[in-house]
Amino acid sequence: MKTTDIRMTEFNARQYFDHIYQRPVILEAKQLSQVFQHGKNSRTILNQLDLKIHKREFICVIGPSGCGKSTFSRVVAGLDPYSSGELLVDGQPISGPSPERGMVFQGYTLFPWKSVKENVMFGPLMKGASHASAEAAAREWINIIGLEKYENQYPHQLSGGMKQRVAIARALVNEPKILLMDEPFGALDPHTRQKMQKHLMDLWQNIDITIIFVTHDMDEAILLADRIVALKANPGEIKEIIEVDLPRPRNTELMSSPAFKQLRERVDFLVHTQEEELDPALEDLPKIPRMTQVSTHK
To answer: Is residue 110 part of a domain?
Structure first.
């Protein structure tokens, strides 16, 4: 496994990353493997991953379809067990879900029968907080995400971007150490997606949180991450870890810079060059027979 280092002369990248690596390791995977059993057959999804993530890092995980990106996030969340190896948070093994690891999915997972405020209150109430304390915490986070005017609205009355902001608040109200995000903006239109990316960066820069963000969008990964973990598929292994040596705060204007384009070419090479690593379901796609007579000259 290599580490790619692409620099911008006006940004002291080495100092920035040395500062990150001096922080405590909050999540560590040691020879982490995940094997799915199907009767007598088995398939290795994650194969002996070794990874250290430091406190307050923003990590993006990217790779081709079938590389185990979502599986990794679910294992870290404690939603799926791992088959072998070790997975530690602050040196302690992960044995199941915990409020110290919040999760935001691509699909809208709010309780449809609860209002915005009630959705955000749910976590603190489950932890044993009083109704007054849970309501105060919920209101604080609803204000932070800018939805105080909508606290009594229900999910079906919200836009996609609003729903994901509520989902982020519902995860952060529990004060987790790690926020896991599995393609949370994948279903949003491009304009809303850009606004949510900026909103997430603002949140991350102002609170004590480590973010592990799964995405298939290369531009999104470069825009958000401190480091990008590029996985290969079949089985899922760490192919390379890329230090994103671009100054913060970042914005979409940075995407036209030579350094951004150079990083994008590198990430594109890692994700898309080896055909044998693609999802097996995409192999040998049949030729579609003509079903009707259509002329392109009419």
So the answer is: no
